[in-house]
């Protein structure tokens, strides 16, 4: 499985990747994007099986990226890993087609709870 991790912070991308590995998802191909625009392009070119995206990023936010993907007909599984998890954000994410929203702080158990059933 190919997983696209999108965050404008390189350090946060590395933390997400490390947490994926700690959660037992260490045998998957991980690719990275720095913002929603790059994520949108990589979904088209690299065909990931899952997108894990931050919400707040320059150029194109995670929710704008998800909305653009769905408007283009892409049904790639998409989840958020972000610093905020208000009920309003969770509702907006779900309405846009996100499978889950993981709010920081998170750990490997949080990832397992959200990703079991999504990652084969």
Automatic annotation (TrEMBL):
Residues where 4-aspartylphosphate is found: 54
Gene3D superfamilies: 3.40.50.2300
Transmembrane annotation, as ranges: none
GO terms under biological process: phosphorelay signal transduction system
A matching Pfam family: Response_reg
Residues of the signal peptide: none
SUPFAM superfamilies in alphabetical order: CheY-like
UniProt keyword annotations, A-Z: Phosphoprotein
Response regulatory domain mapped to chain residues: 2-119
InterPro entries registered for this protein in UniProt: CheY-like_superfamily (IPR011006), Sig_transdc_resp-reg_receiver (IPR001789), ST_Response_Regulator (IPR052048)
Protein name: Two-component system chemotaxis response regulator CheY
Species in which this protein is naturally found: Modestobacter roseus
